[in-house]
Structures are given as structure tokens and as C-alpha cells.
Design a protein that fits this description.
The chain is an alpha/beta fold and about 350 residues long. It folds into 3 domains: about 1-40 and about 60-105 and about 190-265, 3-Layer(aba) Sandwich (Rossmann fold), CATH 3.40.50.300; about 115-185, DNA polymerase, domain 1, CATH 1.10.150; about 285-350, Beta-grasp domain (Ubiquitin-like (UB roll), Roll), CATH 3.10.20.30. It is about 40% helix and about 20% strand. It is built from 14 helices and 12 strands. It has helices spanning about 15-20, 40-50, 80-90, 110-135, 145-160, 175-180, 205-210, 225-235, 235-245, 255-265, 290-295, 300, 310-320, 320-325, and strands spanning about 1-5, 35-40, 55, 60-70, 90-100, 190-195, 220-225, 265-270, 275-285, 305-310, 330-335, 345-350. The strands form 3 sheets. Strands 2-4-1-5-6-7 form a 6-stranded mixed sheet, sandwiched between helices. The protein has a 3-stranded mixed sheet with strand order 3-9-8, with helices on both faces. The protein has a 3-stranded antiparallel sheet with strand order 11-10-12. The mean pLDDT is about 90. Bound molecules: guanosine-5'-diphosphate and magnesium ion.
Length: about 350
């Protein structure tokens, strides 16, 4: 899972990247550097205590300090193709909005509007290019798939023309898959971070309820002070608690963003255990046991037989697999089984 931080110049993107990665900005972080952040998981840590494995592997989220986006960037082509490419391959965006004074007017809603518009324009430009190519090929390649694609793209274009993001487009059978192939920016999930200064961070609740009224209701919003969070991320652990109390920070932004990202992306985790390795695996909610097996190894997908499964709560209740079997909570699930969050799974696969 790959998340890009984007926002206006000076909104605090690099500061937020520092808060999430614990890497100091001055250490010359190259633009677009990707860091991996472990997803904290108490269940995994408790299992690791039981199994005492050689390795404990948390699920990871990749984050990069991707792009500054300003009004006119798409039209004037002032955003690098590389940055656009990075954004297209992202699974989600963190859009940071400035709510602290830097001498320029503070207007987070306008900053949101600008980026939203650039996304729409970028998607429109991409569609127009593709349509042009389809029309040029004209009669030569008049097959149904191309015609379907054309119809879908025209539908997208009409939607974008009404200034609506593609994330709100109703798709028919088969269109969804076709649409995903384009990696449209306005289709991706987004999280907003309203970046306020250290003096107003204690009014986060008020800021949040005020700003919520002005932004689309379906986008999750976090209010934080990236600067304090960046300091916190670089602090020795024993000093963190006092600092957090002093500034009224209940959870670090790193923790909050990870939680929010998992929710926004619809991720759940299944667990594998053993003496070699205990590990948490992120999957999309609703995934089948066979698809989940495939995230471990394609062989597990191709030669899937059964998934030995115990729920995490059952496992902690009975303490080990043998007791789980006795209690009848250890199950052999088939390939259609829908994996649940916290399932402890061992895949049986053929040779
Ligand atoms: N007061 C305050 N200033 C901040 C905060 N975050 C960033 N800044 C300041 O804004 C400037 C730009 O931040 P930076 O992270 O480099 O912005 P970027 O251009 O979006 O990467 C820096 O001088 C920071 O000190 C914040 O949370 N509070
Ligand atoms: Mg920066």
C-alpha cells in the first residue's frame, strides 16, 4: 500500500513526512523518497511473545513526500511527469492543508479546491488524449472493447465536466476494472490533514468541526500540528509522554494516519505464526482465503487446498492450536472463505 503526501507549497508536506518517517528533513531526503512505516499491531506482538519467532514482520505502508501542486499546474504542465506518475500509482493521498500563518492568507478550503480542480483537469486531459487516439484509429479498430472503452470514457468526461470526482461515478459491470486501469487521480481515496500551528493545536476539535462544514463530507479529516509531530518523531522515547501531555497530543499523527489509512483503504490483517516468523498481512476486506493465500505466495494461490484458520480471540482464549482443535474453533476453510480481521491462518497447498 502506497500513499503519497501532496499539498500546496509550504503547507507542511515535508514536515509531515518527517513526522511519519522519523527521518529529519535536513538529512537531504530526496524528493519522492519512499519510506515504509510499520503498522502497529498488538495482536502480532502478543503472538510473537507466544511463539518467540526469529522474525516478527509487521504489515507496512509506504509513504512518500510526493508533490507540490499549485493552481494551473496541469494546464501549464508545471508538474513533472514523474510526480504525476507517482501520484497515479498511489493507493491513496494524504492532502495537507495549511492552517498556520506564514505571511500568506490562511485558506485551507481554497487549497483543497485548487488540488481537487487540478485532479479533475489532469483526469480530463488523460481521457481526451485517449479518446483522440481511439478516434484516430477510427474504423480500423472498430471492435466492441474499444467502443465500450470509448463510451465509458465519455461518461467519465461528462462526470468530470460537472466538477465531480471519478470516485463518485456509478460504474456498470466491467467498467470498474477498465476504469482502474487508468489510475485516475480523482478516483483515489483521500485523507485530509489540516496543519495548524503549535498555539492552536489545543483547539483542534473546534477547528475540525468548523472546517468539516466547508469540505466534502465523505473525506476523512485529521487536525494536527505537523511541526510538533515532527519534533515528537525525533525525540528519545522517554521524553515523548511529557511532550504529548504538554501539547495535548493524545495519539501521534503517525498512529492516527496509519489507522485512518487502513480504514480508508478498507484493509484488514490476517496473521501467520511459527518459530521462524510471525507476520501480519494486509488484505482488502472481503478477500477470499485463496486470494489471501496468493498475497503470501502465488504458489499458495495456484495450489491452494485449505486454509487452517483460528480467530485471534479464540487463539488467545485457548492458548494453543491443540486446545483450539479440542474446543472446535480451529477450522479448515475452503478457497471461498472470506478472511476476517485477525484470523490466524496456515495455508495448505499442493506441491
Ligand atoms: N507553525 C507551523 N509551521 C509549520 C508547520 N508545518 C510546517 N511549518 C512551516 O512551514 C514551512 C514549510 O514547511 P514544509 O514542510 O517544508 O512545507 P512543504 O513545502 O509543503 O514541504 C517550514 O518553514 C515549516 O517550519 C506547522 O505545523 N506549524
Ligand atoms: Mg517540501
Amino acid at each position: 500500500m502506497y500513499i503519497s503526501i501532496i499539498g500546496a507549497a509550504g503547507s507542511g508536506k515535508t514536515m509531515l513526512f518527517q513526522a511519519l518517517s522519523g527521518i529529519k528533513k535536513d538529512n537531504g531526503i530526496a524528493p519522492n523518497t519512499i519510506v515504509t512505516v510499520d503498522v502497529p499491531d498488538e495482536r502480532l506482538e502478543r503472538l510473537a511473545k507466544t511463539f518467540n519467532p526469529k522474525k516478527t514482520v509487521h504489515a507496512r505502508i509506504e509513504i512518500s513526500d510526493t508533490a507540490t501542486i499549485e493552481e494551473g499546474d496541469v494546464k501549464n504542465e508545471t508538474i513533472s511527469p514523474k510526480a504525476i506518475q507517482k501520484m497515479r500509482t498511489s493507493d491513496a493521498f494524504i492532502l495537507i492543508l495549511r492552517h498556520f500563518d506564514n505571511g500568506l492568507p490562511v485558506d485551507p478550503v481554497a487549497e483543497f479546491g485548487t488540488i481537487f480542480t487540478e485532479f479533475i483537469l489532469s483526469d480530463m486531459a488523460q481521457i481526451e488524449m485517449r479518446l483522440e487516439r481511439i478516434n484516430k484509429q477510427g474504423g480500423k479498430k472498430d471492435n466492441t472493447i474499444v467502443q465500450q472503452e470509448k463510451a465509458m470514457l465519455e461518461k467519465c468526461l461528462a462526470h468530470l465536466n460537472e466538477e465531480k470526482p471519478l470516485s463518485t461515478l456509478q460504474t456498470l459491470n466491467g467498467e470498474g476494472k477498465m476504469l482502474r486501469g487508468f489510475q485516475f487521480l480523482s478516483q483515489k481515496p483521500m485523507m485530509l490533514v489540516v496543519n495548524c500551528d503549535e498555539m492552536t493545536v489545543d483547539k483542534a476539535e473546534t477547528i475540525l468541526s468548523d472546517i468539516k462544514l466547508l469540505l466534502p463530507g465523505d473525506i476523512p479529516i485529521i487536525v494536527a500540528c505537523a511541526k510538533l509531530e515532527a519534533e515528537l518523531a525525533l525525540m528519545p522515547p522517554e521524553e515523548c509522554a511529557d511532550f504529548m501531555i504538554e501539547y495535548g497530543i493524545k495519539e501521534t499523527i503517525r498512529y492516527r494516519i496509519i489507522q485512518l489509512a487502513c480504514r480508508t483503504l478498507g484493509l484488514i490483517f490476517f496473521l501467520t505464526v511459527g518459530e521462524d516468523e510471525c507476520r501480519a498481512w494486509p488484505i482488502k476486506r472481503g478477500m477470499s482465503a485463496q486470494d489471501a493465500a496468493g498475497t503470501i505466495h502465488t504458489d499458495f494461490y495456484n495450489k491452494f487446498i485449505r486454509a487452517e484458520t483460528v480467530g485471534y480471540d479464540d487463539f488467545t482464549k485457548y492458548g494453543n492450536f491443540a486446545e483450539c482443535k479440542k474446543a472446535g474453533v480451529w477450522r479448515l476453510e475452503g478457497k471461498e472463505y472470506v478472511v476476517k480481521d485477525g484470523d490466524i491462518i496456515s495455508i495448505r497447498a499442493g506441491n
